[in-house]
Every structure is written in C-alpha cells, then in structure tokens.
Amino acid sequence: MTPHLLLGIDTGGTYTDAVLFSETKGVVAKAKALTTRHDLAEGVSGAVEAVLAKADVPVSAISLVSLSTTLATNALVEGQGGRAGLIMIGFAPDDLKRDGLQDALGSDPVLFLPGGHNVHGGETTLDMRALDEALPALGSQVSSFAVAGYFAVRNPDHEKRVRDRIREVSHLPVTCSHELSSKLGGPRRALTTLLNARLVSMIDRLIGSCEDFLKARGIDVPMMVVRGDGALISAAAPRLRPIETILSGPAASLVGARYLTGFDSAVVSDIGGTTTDVAVLEKGRPRLDADGAVVGGFRTMVEAVAMRTYGLGGDSEVKINDRGLKARLDLGPRRFLPLSLAAALHGDAVLSVLQKQLRAPHAGRHDGRLAVRTGLPDHLASGLQPQEQALYDRIGMIPVALADLLVTTSQRATLDRLVARGLVHLCGLTPSDAMHVLGRQAQWNGEAARLGLEIAARTKDGSGQPIAASVAALAQMIVDRLTRQSSEAILQACLNEDGAGAIDPAVSLSVDRALKREPGIVRFSLGIDRPLVGLGASAPVYYPAIAEMLSAEPAIPAEADVANAVGAVVGQVRTTVTVFVTTPEEGIFIVNGAGASERFVDQQEAFGVARRRAKTMALESARANGAEDPAATLREEIDAPEVEGSRKLIEARFIASASGRPRIAHG
C-alpha cells in the first residue's frame, strides 16, 4: 500500500521547487524547474512532474498540497506590481504624507471621499458622487482598487459599500483595509491595502496556475498556502489577501530549517535569486514582528516573521562604479535575468549580441545588457503612458540589446518603469554568471557568462587601468562582493536583534577591519554565538565563506535547496481574531469585531459576548482554512486606568488564536 505523501511547492523568483514528504520518512524526493513568470503553471508542472518521476509514485499517493512563494516579497522589494487605484474615505490629502503612503503610491491615482467613522463606530455620511464620476475612466487605467476608510476597523460599512460600487461598475478586484488588519492607524492600513491590491493579480495567477495543473493531473486534495508568519491557510484566502503571503517563502524556510536541523537557536539565512532573508531562531521558534513586516522599505500591518529581507541574491545586478581610482563593485537590489540563463532560454539571440559587442573597438554604455518581455497577459499592461507603450511595443519575447533599444537618455527611465511594473526583464551580468565562469555552477549557458564578463572586464577605472586582470579575477571579485554584502546583511540583522541596530556594518570602520582580519595595534574581531544555517540552492557554494567571515559555525542541511518546500508541508494552520470593547460614554459598552456592532449597558455582559465571539470566530476561521481539529486559546488586554479611585475602561481587546494540523485527503 502506497503511504500518504504531502506535496510541498515553493515558487521563487528563479526556481520552483517541489518535494514529496512523508510524516514518517521525511523528504522522499525533490526536484526543481525554472519559474516561468509568463505562465506560472509551466514551472509548477515541471517541478511536480519531475518529483513524481523521481519518487516513482502515483498521484493517488498525494493527500495534501501546500504552497509557499517569494513572488509577493520579491515584487515589493523590486517595486513591482500592478497599477492600483486608492480610495480614501474620510481622510484628507495630508494623510498621504504619513507612514510612507505617498512614496508607496507613486503615480497611481488616489480619490478622497467624504465619510468614515469614529472610534466607537459612529458614522459620518458617505458621499460617493466623486467615485461615480471617476470610475468609468479609472477602471481602464488600473488593474485593481484599494479602499481605506477612517476607523474602518470599528465599522467597515463604508468600505463595503464603496467596494460593491467599484465591483459593480469596473468588475476589477477590490481590497478593503478592514479585511487585512484590525489595528488602528489609517495611513499605514491604507499603505498595506494599496500594496495588497497591487499583488492581487500576481498571486491569483500563481494559485490559479497551481489549481489548474493539479486538477488536470488528477490531484484532487486540499491545497494550502504558507502565510508570512509561517502558518498555513487555505488557498482561497490569499487570492483576496495576497499581502499575507509577503515573507511566505522566508517563513516557510524558517519552519523548514527548524525541521531539517533540529536547532533551537540559530541564525538562518536563505539566499535566492532575488533576495537574501535573515532571521533568528530562539527556543525553536522564529520571532514575529509585532509592528508589522517591513518589505521593500515599507512597514506594513501584516504580522509576519521578524525577518530582514535584502535585495541580494545570485541573480542580483552587478553594478560597476569606475569613477574612483579603484573601481568598486556593488550588487542589487534589482534582479537581472542572468546572461547565462537568458542564453539558455534564447540561445543565439543573446550570444550573437554579446559577441558583436565584444568585437566592437570601443565599449558601449549599455554593453552586456538586454531587455525582454516577461510575457505577462496584455491586460496587466493597462494604464501605460504613451512613451511607455511605445517602448514596450519595441520589446518582444526575444531579448533585444539595450544599445539598440534606447535611443534617448530619457528612455532609460521609461524602461525602468516597465521593469518596475513586472512587464520587462533586464538581462545582464550577475553573481550566477560569475559562478559559471569559476566552474561552481553549470546549469545554464557558460559561454554567455564568459562573454558577459569579458565585456565587463574591458571597463577601466579612474586611473585608466582595467578593473580586473582577467575574466576569472573579475568573477572572483563579484563572488567576494556577494560574500561581503551577505555578511553585512546577516550581521545587521543580528545587531538589530541585539538592540544595536544603530551600527551600520556597511560603513563601520571597526566592522570592516574585523571582517577583513586586518592587523593593527587595536585588534577588532566579531562572531556569532550560534550556528549559521545557510539555505537556498546556492547555499553550499556561498555560505562556507560567509560563515568563515563571520566566525560562525556553518550548517547547510542536505535539503537546503528545498527548505522552503519542506517548511510548506510541516507547518500548522493558525488563525487569530480580535474583538474590541469600547465605552463611548459612562455606562455604555460597544462590542466591535467578528460581527455586527452590539451595544450593552453591563460591562461583564459585553466582555462575555466579546470572549465568545473571538473564540468562536477563531475556531470557525481555522476550520475554514483547513484545520482538522483546531484548539483555541484566548488572551485579554484591558486598558482601564484608575481615575479618582475607580477604573475607567478605555478599550478591551479579546484575542483568540486557534491552530491545528491541516486536514488531508484519505483515498
């Protein structure tokens, strides 16, 4: 009899991983396929078909599928996502200046409507006339909407009414702020909602691709998704609230690292193609960021693992600063399509461009860089400005040299905007290419990597000397730079955990001397007090040197390349619900959350209703998210300061959590 197996899938920026996992035997088989952003189903099916073939088991053996992804994290780090319209109810334009909302909004449209509520849920009249006038035009300029109402966490009625009107007229996805957080702080809740709206189409396509493939393959079992705090939720939830999947991949890697190493205390660093994610395990659990996850420079209201995400990975852009007497290399934060991978996908179209540029007597400004469409559906390119559309029309599914594409200086900024929208890939030199030249990676086209490095090696520094003596020397310089930047990222995360975040390893002379082991009258040294767990497909080639630089004990598990996919299947379903009790006037108690507002004249009766509401809704939510037999716990936070000898209630919060293992299909 074939045992029940759990299928874990992780969709990263470069690779999609799949593992078959047995609760008695651990990892049974693992496989990888390139993530295909134009059609995510291709990468998913490639990885799953490969792992099924390796394990030589029928699809009937699979009883649960669980998915983790770094797509949402990568999109926010790289500033990507669809164009969203922000509707602010009861707010003023000055509110955009708070919590980074204006920066996050960029050129996306925003509309202010009269309305909103007060802290106790009382309303100011909603006026939707401006919305009705703007909707016909707005609906053709954006791919989704975000709606944020003043004190919507106390009464979401206005958000719901605006949402329904937008859906009725535009038929586009709409995210409401009350669906994402129960915390106060309107501008940051609006920021979170805006980012969520931008991610809707991307995550919807991912989950839809997985579901379509599984259905076609005859795998009819429950499907789960890893949330940013490491918990599992049913696949339906993130289609509406995709921002809950930010840090999904990193959270899954932490769960996987704990399972694969057994360490209770460790520094865990996961290097992918786009990002490096660093977190600390303490007493067997990752710490959650109570203030909300920070991704791409924005602090959201999403509860997630306390993890630092850096735009640094194997596919990071290599930037050469040749203005000083000695050239300097820097990596990231943007992801490039490595030249070796671009040539593996497109062959002579890439190689011929690089060969022609290398034969030219003089180096060109854009040598070694190409552009290619990502292959996203046309509707996701809605709202392009005329100059953006004109440039986009000149870029096809075959890479084109930037030297041929960019005629004017201003077109570079236009191209950057197309990249930020996720519509275009830039192809260029990356650490992955350097690893191909050094012989430490060999999965793509090594000739393209060599040509790219030869082109870069022609660059001269401020003294007129070549920046490297040879192609191999330049490749080693790039790898050394990744080692140093990774060490700084890990060190910064650890210093923040220690409360010493004011120290910046990138600029500290003391840290620089310690990392370089430079001799001096005063000796500087540093180290990490616990193992450094390196995860990711390239961890074995990068992390021994990184651990040595940090004087840390390296720990790279055998399944480091699929730790995210392992973490996707060993986690638990966990949901949290908060119900509030406030007192607008003496002797009146209002219960808000997990249902309609209720008014009471007895405090204990109000508290009892709030407790039952929170616990009941948490259990219902856990079951709805796929938990087999959830158990609930309740904690209370009561703000009732003593005033003139008696306690006066300001606010009471009843927070219920329910958790359990996901239910599996029994064939």
Automatic annotation (TrEMBL):
Transmembrane portions of the chain: none
Record InterPro entries: ATPase_NBD (IPR043129), Hydant_A_N (IPR008040), Hydantoinase_A (IPR002821), Oxoprolinase-like (IPR045079)
Gene Ontology CC: cytosol
Q: Where is the signal peptide?
A: none
Q: Which Pfam families match?
A: Hydant_A_N, Hydantoinase_A
Q: PANTHER family from the entry?
A: 5-OXOPROLINASE, 5-OXOPROLINASE RELATED
Its recorded name reads: Hydantoinase/oxoprolinase
Q: Which organism is it from?
A: Sinorhizobium medicae
Q: Species lineage, top-down?
A: Bacteria, Pseudomonadati, Pseudomonadota, Alphaproteobacteria, Hyphomicrobiales
